[in-house]
Amino acid sequence: MSGAEKIDVTVTEIVAVNELVTRFKFERTDGGLLPTFSGGAHTVVEMKDGAITRMNPYSLMSDPMDQSAYTISVRRDDEGRGGSLFMHNNVSVGDKMVISYPVNLFSLDLRAKKQLFIAGGIGITPFLSQIKQMERLGGAWELHYACRNAALGSYVDELLSAHPYEAHVYYDDEKQAIALEELLNGQPVGTHVYVCGPKGMINWVRATTEKLGWPREAVHYEEFLAPQPGKPFEVKLAVSNKVIQVGEDESLLEAMERSGVDAPYLCRGGACGQCETRVIDYSGNFIHRDHWLEDDEHASGEKIMPCVSRFEGKTLVLDR
Amino acid sequence: MSKFEFPQSIRSRPVWGTLEPRAGKHHLMIADAQGAEAILDVATPELMTGAHIIFIAKGTDYGDKLRALNPAQYYEGPSYEAAASRIQRVLQDAKMSTQVYLSGTESLMGQAMRECTNAGIPYTAVQTEHRGSTARRMQCVHCKGITEDVAIDPFVCSHCGLNLFVRDHYSRRLAAYQGVCIDAEDPGNVPPSKGIYE
């Protein structure tokens, strides 16, 4: 079985944080302790939605040392493929669910002298666990958190009351914006910056740090890509000797799983590299959406990340 | 003729690069002796407006040429040890938009690199370029004493007097190559010394 090990859990609390965001609490169904994790880790939540099993990654926001329960916050995406809507509409307290062991693709570099967190919207969630970890370690950190408005600012009140000197909040509708260049310029040597939020924000931070000469090793970012729908296509899996159809609303990875092929995966969001698959033959165009492969690898037609990328054309043969 | 092509070796051995101008507001350049040539090669008027050059002359006369680059700050000191506290202070106050350029001997680059990593700069982000002497800063693995400017192999530890074999095994923490007793099994059986790269 691919992916991280699974844990059977029960939903023990559901809290509406605001109009768009709902928080879920999971405890082990067998009553045991959950594994500790490190700040920034995520879990993949399995959702049995009729005939479809959705598997979406969500950042763990609870204290990494708290083994009694995990909490995640899910932002409702009315335009998405349905994972977040399923969580919002179909999950109730007492439901049994399956989640994965924590996986961290956004961990803190503890060699840093200071951690600088930049969050946009629901991108706040990994920082909630990282802040708890930093508070436990006694390390220096600072948070700059941009959200649309006060009503949609998840956990703003908690952050500002617990960390009045470290947390800084910016509301778009009040025309407040992070003074990024000044902020980055003022950071002492040994600072690492972490950004989680919309693609535009991540690109903004990466471009600005590059311009200012920050070392690449000191710039960390996490962006989960949801697989986008697209035209159906056909794939031949050479190792499994199967020809499968990828539907409009499912990813190539999901189609392989539906066909009984045990394909590797971890993040299911184009970031971790686990599902990288070799292309044996193709005639058509790749729609690469991951940020794992380099540009030249995307152009080479030799590799594809089936969790988020698609294909349009006549033939696609994969080494799987 | 200050450039030297080091032979391929074990993974532990540092690999030095070639300095190139990088984006950044501040440019900290630390060099000794012929290392000045690498700074003269990389210097541009833009870099110099934010540059702090720390130069250890070791009897060379590059000082005037470096000063003529018109860096924002210039310091010339008699030895690395004399400059060390200044380097530490500069790094303590440095901002993230600082680029570090190290050039000269392996001893200078190794020790300045150690200060950089202690300050929290990833070692992969620090640029280096070897120029000048290929003599090494050696640690005796037995008495832990450091012998500077070792050009021959084997050599005699300047602290405990053991005959030491010059290894390519390097310690970033100590900023030194390791010297191991060459005649421990058969005291007195010491091959004649020759240049490390002969």
Automatic annotation (TrEMBL), chain A:
Keywords from UniProt, A to Z, are: 2Fe-2S, Dioxygenase, Flavoprotein, FMN, Iron, Iron-sulfur, Metal-binding, Oxidoreductase
Source organism's superkingdom?
A: Bacteria
Q: Might you give the EC number(s) for this enzyme? A: 1.14.12.7
Q: Which PROSITE patterns match?
A: 2FE2S_FER_1, 2FE2S_FER_2, FAD_FR
What are the names of the required cofactors?
FMN
Record flagged with keyword Oxidoreductase: yes
Pinpoint the FAD-binding FR-type domain residues. 4-109
The kind of enzyme this is, by top-level EC class, is oxidoreductase
Give start and end of each 2Fe-2S ferredoxin-type domain: 233-320
Q: Which SUPFAM superfamilies match?
A: 2Fe-2S ferredoxin-like, Ferredoxin reductase-like, C-terminal NADP-linked domain, Riboflavin synthase domain-like
Question: What are the recorded GO MF terms, alphabetically?
Answer: 2 iron, 2 sulfur cluster binding; metal ion binding; phthalate 4,5-dioxygenase activity
PANTHER family associated with the record: CARNITINE MONOOXYGENASE REDUCTASE SUBUNIT (PTHR47354:SF1), NADH OXIDOREDUCTASE HCR (PTHR47354)
- Name of the protein in question: Phthalate 4,5-dioxygenase oxygenase reductase subunit
Which gene does this sequence derive from?
A: pht2
UniProtKB/TrEMBL annotation, chain B:
List the GO molecular function terms: 2 iron, 2 sulfur cluster binding; metal ion binding; oxidoreductase activity
Specify the Dimethylamine monooxygenase subunit DmmA-like N-terminal domain's residue ranges: 9-124
Q: Does the keyword NADP apply?
A: no
Report domain Dimethylamine monooxygenase subunit DmmA-like C-terminal positions: 137-180
> Which named protein is this?
Uncharacterized protein
**UniProt keyword terms in alphabetical order:** 2Fe-2S, Flavoprotein, Iron, Iron-sulfur, Metal-binding, Oxidoreductase
Q: Name the coiled-coil region(s).
A: none
Q: Which InterPro entries match?
A: DmmA-like_C, DmmA-like_N
